[in-house]
Every structure is written in C-alpha cells, then in structure tokens.
C-alpha cells in the first residue's frame, strides 16, 4: 500500500520532508500541498518534479478525499488548528514541533485525540530517533555510569532570522531538549530558571542571546542547557551526562579527520537539516509504518504537551528571573 500524504507548509522543513517522502523513504507519496505562499508551493512541486495538487487552504487539503494522512510543517502558531482539523477528519497527522505554541493549545489536541479514541498524532521530535541519542540512552540504561546526577547541554545555531525573538529560544529551539532529555533519563522536570550572560554583539534588539536554562527534575537531577542561536561557527548540539560512576557524551556526527596546512581538524556542520538527516528519515518512516499498521508509536501529543508545559515555565522564567515550578499532570492511560 502507498500512503497518500498532504503537506501543509512548503518552507524549509516542509520542502525537505516532501523530498524525503518522495525520494528517500518507502511506502508513501505526496499528493497534495498547501502554503499561504501559493507560488512557493507550486515552485516546490515543479522543482521536485512530483505530481501533487496545490490546495488553496490547509483545511481543504485535510478534507481532500485522496489525502490519507497529513504533515503539518507550517509556522508554529498555525499548528494547533491544522492538527485539530486532521483529528476531526479522522486522519493521522505528523506535526512538526511545537505541537502548539502553548501548553493549553497542546492540551486541546490531547483532549481531542483521546475523544477520537485512537492515536492520530505524531510530533516531529526527531532526536529520540537519532543514532547518537539512542546510543547515549543505551549506555545510561545499562547502568554503566550509574544514576545520572547532572546534564550539561548546548543547543547552538550559527544564526537566526530577525523574526526570531527571546521567547522562541524556548518554543522553537530548547523545545527539542525539553522533549529528548526527559526521554533520555526517564524523568520529569519540576522547575526552571533562565539566566542571561553577556549578550553577543551578533544579536538584535528583540533577542537576548545566549541564554542558560537551568532545570531540576523529580529525581533531583540538575540540567543546564546553553541556548546560543548566533554562535556563528556551526550547528552544534552537545549533551554530557554526569553519573555516579562515570560520564557519557553524545557522539559527534562522523566527519573526516583532516591533516593539512599544519592543522589536524574535523569539520562542523552548519545546518540542522544535515545534522539530523538520518533521524528525520527514521521518524517519518516510522510515521508511515505507524499509519499503515494502524498503530502510531513515535512521539505522541502527550510528549508535545509535556514539553510545552516545561516550555511555558521557561518562558515565564525568562521574564520573572525567578525559579518557576513545572507541574505536569499525570499521563492519561491512553498514552501508556
Ligand atoms: P519556514 O518559514 O521556512 O516555512 C514555514 C512555511 O509555512 C512558510 O512557507 C509559510 O508561508 C507557511 N505557512 C505559515 N502559515 C501557514 C498557514 N496558515 N497555512 C499554510 N502555510 C503556512 O519555517 P520552517 O523552518 O520550515 O519551520 C516550519 C515548522 O517546522 C516550524 O514549526 C519549526 O519549528 C519546525 N521545524 C522543525 C525542525 C526540526 O528540527 N524538527 C527544523 C526546522 C523547523
Ligand atoms: C529549528 O526550528 C529547529 O527545529 C532546529 O532543530 C533547531 O536547532 C533550531 O533552533 C530551530 O529554529
């Protein structure tokens, strides 16, 4: 069976996902696309040489008879309405992060999915599918470094657009750590604080950059995440887990070691598309398989909600300067 997918949002990641669905993965094809920039949507279809109809609105695409599953890759604030519409239409939906821009919005999706009676939503948290994070989790779960005590992490982007503000460091960027770290150490957050070091001269008036987010978990683990989105030198994701018996680090992406011009060096990637290329492939192949088998297994709407609850506290902490509590309700049995 070939799954017919409709994609809403043909920007950077929408286009990349359409490419992988059309040429890298198996079991699916893109039959419909939509973007508020219709010309761009048409260009993507033409440039990739796929046979997909361009729809005038996301809602029409969701309702189209030949669309069996939906990919939401539009801007964050539009996600909630599209995901709710897909659930209402009974169609499985893969939604890029964030699931919704507030925890309240994510909760409405969780409630709608539970009311629908079956899992229909997978969130685009790709890091749990990344080989490096999986290897790190295997080491932690093996007990070799003992119980985790502290995590030191960094999420660095070379640059961001003028439209990216201080709050987005949480909702757009840190949200990946908020999801993957609770999975990695099987724990939940209980508080968050945000501190701002000296700002880089490469930032702009609406963005305080860098930031350090300090999280505490239910088991007492302390986590620091540096979010630095104008670091210039590369796209760099770091994660070090300090345990009672040893330390484990997220592996670097493999790259050729170079001896030249009196230097020993390895390259650093510049783009998230390259850094997580395999993880994006695996997460979407899992979505296709889940829909085809009638059993979605990837990150759920509850994962999207849990990350957003922590994200809301971090956003609050950015403004208050205080340690803000994180209160995640217990997980409904539906998501066990
Ligand atoms: P982008 O700005 O390149 O593309 C977004 C597209 O959505 C634009 O073409 C825009 O015209 C379209 N759009 C906005 N509102 C719409 C609406 N109501 N209906 C139809 N189209 C609409 O942004 P990018 O980087 O592609 O990000 C899109 C989403 O994917 C964001 O939520 C972002 O956080 C997420 N993302 C996830 C990544 C990951 O690592 N998982 C990486 C990059 C983005
Ligand atoms: C972007 O939207 C992503 O999701 C990338 O993975 C992240 O590194 C970046 O900071 C976000 O802007």
UniProtKB/TrEMBL annotation:
Keywords, sorted A to Z: NAD, Oxidoreductase
Presence of the UniProt keyword Oxidoreductase in the record: yes
Catalysed transformations (reactions): myo-inositol + NAD(+) = scyllo-inosose + NADH + H(+)
Record-listed E.C. numbers: 1.1.1.18
SUPFAM superfamilies for the chain: Glyceraldehyde-3-phosphate dehydrogenase-like, C-terminal domain, NAD(P)-binding Rossmann-fold domains
Family: Belongs to the Gfo/Idh/MocA family.
PANTHER family registered for this protein in UniProt: INOSITOL 2-DEHYDROGENASE, PTHR43593
Function per UniProt: Involved in the oxidation of myo-inositol (MI) to 2-keto-myo-inositol (2KMI or 2-inosose).
Protein name as catalogued: Inositol 2-dehydrogenase
Lineage: Bacteria, Pseudomonadati, Pseudomonadota, Gammaproteobacteria, Pseudomonadales
């Amino acid at each position: 069976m070939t799954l017919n997918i409709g994609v809403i949002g043909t920007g950077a990641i929408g286009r990349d996902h359409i490419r992988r669905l059309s040429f890298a993965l198996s079991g699916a094809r893109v039959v419909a696309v939509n973007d508020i920039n219709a010309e761009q949507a048409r260009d993507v279809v033409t440039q990739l040489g796929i046979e997909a109809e361009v729809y005038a609105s996301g809602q029409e695409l969701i309702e189209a008879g030949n669309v069996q599953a939906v990919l939401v890759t539009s801007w964050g604030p539009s996600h909630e309405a599209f995901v709710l519409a897909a659930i209402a239409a009974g169609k499985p939906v893969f939604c890029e992060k964030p699931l919704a821009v507030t925890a309240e919005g994510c909760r409405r999706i969780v409630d709608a999915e539970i009311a629908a009676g079956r899992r229909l939503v997978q969130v685009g948290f790709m890091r749990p599918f990344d080989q490096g994070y999986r290897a790190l989790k295997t080491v932690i779960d093996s007990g070799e470094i003992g119980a985790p005590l502290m995590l030191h992490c960094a999420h660095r982007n070379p640059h961001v657009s003028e439209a990216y503000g201080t709050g987005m460091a949480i909702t757009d960027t840190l949200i990946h750590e908020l999801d993957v770290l609770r999975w990695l150490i099987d724990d939940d957050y209980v508080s968050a604080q945000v501190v701002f070091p000296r700002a880089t001269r490469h930032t702009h008036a609406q963005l305080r950059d860098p930031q350090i987010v300090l999280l505490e978990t239910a088991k007492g683990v302390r986590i620091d995440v540096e979010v630095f989105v104008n670091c210039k030198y590369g796209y760099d994701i770091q994660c070090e887990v300090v345990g009672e018996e040893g330390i484990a680090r997220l592996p670097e992406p493999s790259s050729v070691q170079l001896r030249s011009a009196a230097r020993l060096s390895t390259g650093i990637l510049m783009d998230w598309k390259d850094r997580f290329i395999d993880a994006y492939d695996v997460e979407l192949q899992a979505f296709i398989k889940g829909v085809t088998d009638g059993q979605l297994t990837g990150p759920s709407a509850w994962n999207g909600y849990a990350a957003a609850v922590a994200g809301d506290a971090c956003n609050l902490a950015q403004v208050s300067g205080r340690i803000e509590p994180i209160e995640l309700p217990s997980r409904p049995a539906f998501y066990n």
